Amino acid sequence: MLSYRHSFHAGNHADVVKHTVQSLIIESLKEKEKPFLYLDTHSGAGRYYLGSEHAEKTGEFLAGIARVWQRDDVPAELEPYLSAVSAYNKGGNLKYYPGSPLIARHLLREQDKLHLTELHPTDFPLLRQEFAKDPRATAVRGNGYQQLKSQLPPTSRRGFILIDPPYEMKTDYQAVVDGIQEGYKRFATGVYALWYPVVLRQQVKRMIQALKDTGIRNILQIELAVQPDSDRRGMTASGMIVINPPWKLEQQMSVALPWLHRVLVPEGIGHTSINWIAPE
Fold first, then answer.
1. Lowest model confidence (mean pLDDT) among 45-49, 96-100, 245-249
2. Residues near 77 by Cβ (< 8 Å), separated by ≥ 6?
3. Known binder of ligand: residue 93?
4. pLDDT at residue 55 greater than cutoff 90
5. Which residues are marked as site: Interaction with substrate rRNA (predicted)?
6. Where are the beta strands (DSSP E) in 66-199?
7. Mean pLDDT for all residues in the chain
8. Is 273 annotated as ligand-binding?
């Protein structure tokens, strides 16, 4: 199945949380001069036009980035993320949403590397074209989980791995755990960030238990819900599970997450949570 297109969902509440966490991790890694690898297992097209038929059909960005964009009370923790969004929207009009590869491209330094993977036959050419002139970047059409075997450990011995599958198939909830386990065997000091949706809470609970069962330690969970859990169709919440998080991340998100909840969910429903699945 390759029916999922992120262009329908770009800039929604889940993207805002995911890319805030992504940006903070990158900024932390930049505090040391030594280069690092950014590895993106499910890169998508890279750039999304918010006036497209897909984006306008769902309008999800209106309850996501559009609520955060150009506010004058933004916490400092969101500034790296919003600087990346601004870089692709000259003149102050919100026309494009940068996916995780473009956010990384904006924030990474000359000495850092990007390894981007996408399998979708329509999205991959767009991704490849987007990065054709960036000497830091390699774009590959293939299975993102296999990159966790072939690309790790990086020569720099420093790395950030973002795992962001569409969860089109229920098997993805176990595939992400298997992928992390494979990567961790090769590169135990890397930072791994796994995005997950909450459609059925039991699926997420099983995935978290499977992660615990790997014996991997130092795992932080960050979640924002815009609706109470439900057994009906649709995503009510999303989160990031981070292995080997930078030491500041928990504190940074304890500031950013309540603010995002207040702005993205003005009705006050849902919840936020930050907790350790497995302490160090």
1. 45-49
2. 20, 24, 252, 253, 255, 256
3. no
4. no
5. 4
6. 96-98, 113-118, 137-141, 159-163, 191-198
7. 94
8. no
Q: According to CATH, what is the number of the domain 6-278? A: 3.40.50.150
Do the bridges between strand 271-278 and strand 219-225 make them parallel or antiparallel, or are there none, so unpaired? antiparallel
Closest Cα to residue 156, out of 111, 217, 118, 117? Answer: 111
**DSSP designation for 44:** -
8 Å CB contact between 113 and 136: yes
pLDDT of residue 205: 96
213: annotated active-site residue? no
Chain centroid to Cα 112, Å, comes to 18
**Structure token digits, residue 196:** 């997950």
Q: What is the 3-class SS of 183-222, one letter each residue? A: HHHHCCCCEEEEEEEECCHHHHHHHHHHHHHCCCCCEEEE
pLDDT per residue as tens digits for the range 88-111 = 998 888 999 999 999 999 999 999
Determine which of 100-114, 208-222, 231-245 has the lowest per-residue pLDDT on average: 231-245
pLDDT at 2 over 50: no
Q: Which of 112, 123, 164, 172 is catalytic?
A: 164
- Among residues 62, 137, 141, the alpha carbon closest in space to that of 100 is found at 137
Does the annotation flag 164 for ligand binding? yes
- Quick check: 140 and 147 in contact, CB under 8 A? yes
Ligand-binding site membership of 77 (annotated): no
Would you state the pLDDT for residue 1?
A: 46
143 known member of a binding site: yes
Cα–Cα dist 160/141, whole Å: 20
